[in-house]
Amino acid sequence: MGTIARLSSARHQFTWGMVLAYLTLLVGALIVLYPFVYMIMNSVKPGREILHSPTSLPSEITFSGYVGVFQRLNIGLLFRNSLILAISITILNTGLSALAAYALAKIPFPGRDRIFGFMLVTIMIPGILFLIPTYVMMFNLGWVGQFRSLIIPSAVSVFNIFLLRQFMRGIPDELVEAARLDGGHEALIFARIILPMARPALATVAILNFMGSWNDFFGPLLYLNTPDKWTLQIGLLQFTSAVPGENAQEIWAATTMITLPLVIVYFFMQDQFTKAFANVSFK
């Protein structure tokens, strides 16, 4: 009887622990989802309700804001430009960062740790200090007004190299050494062993790159000075007005359309995102 009582008590404690955990997760989910629901709710409200009662449910549902977005913006062109930048930067940065991380994690060469330490030091330098020199360089190259002025400087990220290197350090060295003893060259080892095992970290870096490029406002504003190269973020400027709330419906509708791709990407890749940070080694 004593054993049965103890098992019953343990099951009861486990149940209450699970209830507490699920309640905590539920509260966290509500906090995260509220801004998104708030955005969608305001995107289907009449303009007067957005101004006077932004937190209340809409008394009537209207899609005039979305209609206004399509009427006043070449939304297809803006989406295309944003996708070109986001996909190009994501592929290029993820690929180059993975190559650099593999060299720093698995290929022994003189000065490897010093090079990595120097790279980490550069993270502490504010990016704003490179703004004018970078713009002068892009201007002298004749790249201002071209997508390459944003793609090429974003091709490498020290933070992404750091994240991938720390993840790759967790991959057993014995696997790499065994492949080398079997005659495998570094490119084959990288493609057949490292990349499949580092998939969660690669997915995480890809998500960060895509989100950062998609949400970038200042870069396109500075370098893309012709309407045919504008991105979605720059397109939002078309709804600015001296009259407060004049284009509130269009602003909320456009914001919803811009945010939706990020939500979809993260939703389908969130498990990889979690695995990457769960397996990163900070040694």
Structural overview:
This protein is mainly alpha-helical and 283 residues long. The protein is 73% helix and 0% strand. It is built from 14 helices and no strands. The N and C termini lie far apart (50 Å). The model has no long low-confidence stretch (mean pLDDT 84).
Strand content of the residues, in percent?
Answer: under 5%
- Please tally the β strands and state the result: 0
Q: H/E series, N to C? A: HHHHHHHHHHHHHH
Number of domains: 2
Looking at the structure, the CATH topology of the largest domain is MetI-like fold
Shape: globular
Helix count, per DSSP? 14
Low-confidence sequence ranges: none
Terminal residue distance: 50 Å
- What is the chains' assembly state? single chain
CATH architecture of the largest domain, please? Orthogonal Bundle
CATH class of the largest domain: Mainly Alpha
Mean pLDDT: 84
Helix/sheet category: mainly alpha
Q: CATH superfamily membership of the largest domain, which one?
A: MetI-like
Structure keywords:
single chain, 283 residues, mainly alpha, MetI-like fold, 73% helix, globular
Fold blueprint:
Elements: H1 2-43, H2 47-52, H3 64-72, H4 75-106, H5 112-123, H6 131-141, H7 148-151, H8 158-169, H9 173-181, H10 186-197, H11 199-215, H12 218-223, H13 232-235, H14 248-278
Helix pairs in contact: 1-14, 3-14, 4-8, 4-11, 9-10, 11-14
